[in-house]
């Protein structure tokens, strides 16, 4: 069983996880696809409006990530999902985003779920970085994080979503 994690531990994770995610994302950009033994995989998918619930999933080894949502307005938007495992297999990451930066769809709900690992860090954004634009995080009150999910918070979520980032700790066999 792990020792309790205080404020300094959370700060260390807050610094470590984005750096690990950047490394995984850079590797995904350099080596797209799902070759056997790959440590990351990126796939494109359409986010479709119409008010129906849709889902998109990717797996990498023993780990998977699924994105379930309902959106209104506009037309289909091209989004991407990247899943990756760190070289030491200690972290599983899942990033879901609109490469153009801002989504013009009105999200009525969203949930990202990881299987095979427990979430250590997650953030949701109303705008993803693209061109001269920067990431704009949702307010903490707009979404909630559990051990395996990141989802909208009913009555608090303001219907804007352009990016989700998750870093999850993989189980380790201890001697």
Automatic annotation (TrEMBL):
Keyword Signal on entry: yes
Signal peptide region: 1-30
An example Gene Ontology CC term for this record: extracellular space
Domain of life: Eukaryota
GO biological process, one term: positive regulation of endothelial cell proliferation
Pfam family name, one: UPF0556
Keyword RNA-binding: no
Keyword terms: Signal
PANTHER family, A to Z: MYELOID-DERIVED GROWTH FACTOR, MYELOID-DERIVED GROWTH FACTOR MYDGF
UniProt protein name: MYDGF factor
